[in-house]
Design brief:
Number of strands: 10
Structural class: alpha/beta
Helix content: 40-55%
Bound molecules: iron/sulfur cluster
CATH superfamily: Aldolase class I
Radius of gyration: 20 Å
Largest sheet: 7 strands, parallel
Shape: globular
Number of domains: 1
């Protein structure tokens, strides 16, 4: 695409530039700075309230992102979690529907994508997806999480949008009433590009077909320099912000993710998390719900393309490093993101359970059929039962409850 602003609303493109906080060199006093304290936490939150892009926010965020696993970090994150959301652990009964892995991009970390006709390629029919949706409903699911590769053949009557609308309507017909959490910012922009129509028309068209919320995937790391190495064909960090601003302003909530543990530095992580705060503030200023949760996605190298795997030099996540980042993210995102979710697929359920002691309050979904990360060689499995998730929470002596996608009580209206 020649014009990166094409399809995104002009206001969102301008606002994305204000919200996207670029990585800066770490201030000299950060390295070796003394341990994080409740006072520093208050100072950071005061700075973020004024301006997440200010030098003071940057210095304090950088300092937090350099805190080691030992010391006050974990207890402070755990305490802040308790203050913001209490002791209860939540989870959602959902099913993943990855409808195709045909993809025209070649992200350096992706073991999921295939060219059409290549071994391991798949593109499920609507009938096959309906069968899975129906089974999910019978198993008590409240949500279908629908994502796929960027498949230019996925069209109906020549239109990409019509195909995606038909997909939503098909699964709704098979499983009425399930919340449709679907299509990453990259997929939404892809549909707009394919049909050469404004992103807003795509969002509204999908909402009319039943779209309920949007996964905040494809964010990877919101740092243009990292993205140039990791996923140069993917939407840029500024485009991701622009799409998310339009999604939120249209009244849809999204999740927020950070893929970590590969090439990124603490400065990239700080920039990413500060940008998420800026985007959440933009949503709240317009009295829309914005992000519903933050999900840390550790990089899985086992089956990833060799070039990146060899650069990173690790097949499975460094658990201590990811738990440390879990606690740092809880403290940085503070009241802007009260819900924090580890990935049991990437960390294993034991690792995700441990993350509940490092600032997390949610165990995510049952998934029933995880494909993307399992193809990358993750060891957490492809499904969890509600009993297994509940047992994990109870092993820490914490109460546990099923939730809706948007953190409402099951059987009642979603919380905003
Ligand atoms: S991460 Fe997504 S966009 Fe990138 S290659 Fe894989 S399926 Fe395609």
């Amino acid at each position: 695409m020649s014009d990166p602003a094409a399809w995104i609303a002009p206001w969102a493109w301008r606002e994305a530039d204000r919200c996207l906080i670029p990585p800066r060199p770490n201030p000299p006093q950060v390295a070796g700075a003394a341990g994080w304290t409740a006072e520093l936490q208050q100072q950071l939150q005061g700075a973020l309230r004024s301006d997440p892009g200010s030098p003071e926010s940057w210095v304090l965020a950088s300092r937090l992102l350099h805190q080691p696993a030992h010391g006050a970090l974990r207890p402070l994150a755990d305490q802040r979690r308790q203050q913001l959301v209490g002791e209860r652990v939540t989870y959602v009964v959902n099913r993943n529907l990855n409808f195709t892995n045909h993809c025209l991009q070649h992200c350096s970390f992706c073991a999921f994508r295939r060219d059409a006709g290549q071994q391991g390629a798949f593109w499920h029919s609507f009938e096959a997806l309906q069968e899975r949706a129906s089974l999910a409903a019978q198993a008590g699911a409240t949500e279908l999480c629908i994502q796929g590769g960027l498949n230019p053949e996925a069209r109906l009557e020549g239109s990409s949008l019509r195909y995606y609308q038909a997909l939503l309507r098909a699964v709704q017909a098979a499983a009425p009433g399930l919340h449709l959490h679907a299509f990453s910012p990259q997929e939404l922009l892809f549909i707009a590009e394919q049909d050469e129509r404004p992103l807003q028309a795509v969002i509204e068209g999908l909402m009319a077909a039943g779209l309920g919320s949007v996964p905040g995937t494809a964010a990877e790391v919101l740092s243009e320099s990292v993205r140039r190495q990791l996923c140069p064909e993917k939407l840029s960090a500024r485009q991701w912000c622009g799409v998310v601003l339009q999604v939120h302003r249209s009244g849809l909530a999204s999740t927020a993710t950070l893929m970590a543990g590969h090439l990124e530095q603490p400065a990239d992580r700080a920039a990413h998390l500060l940008t998420l705060v800026a985007l959440q503030q933009a949503a709240w200023q317009h009295q829309v719900s914005g992000f519903s949760e933050f999900v840390l996605l550790p990089f899985i190298g086992a089956q990833a393309p060799a070039a990146l795997r060899q650069r990173v030099g690790r097949d499975q996540p460094d658990r201590t490093a990811m738990l440390t980042l879990t606690a740092q993210a809880r403290l940085l995102l503070d009241r802007w993101f009260v819900n924090h979710q580890p990935s049991w697929v990437k960390l294993t359920l034991a690792g995700a359970t441990e993350a509940l002691r490092w600032g997390c309050n949610d165990l995510g979904g049952t998934l029933m059929e995880e494909t993307i990360t399992s193809m990358a060689g993750a060891q957490g499995g492809t499904a969890q039962t509600p009993d297994a998730l509940e047992a994990a929470a109870r092993s820490l002596g914490r109460p546990v409850a099923q939730r809706t996608t948007l953190y409402g009580e099951v059987g009642s209206a979603p919380c905003r």
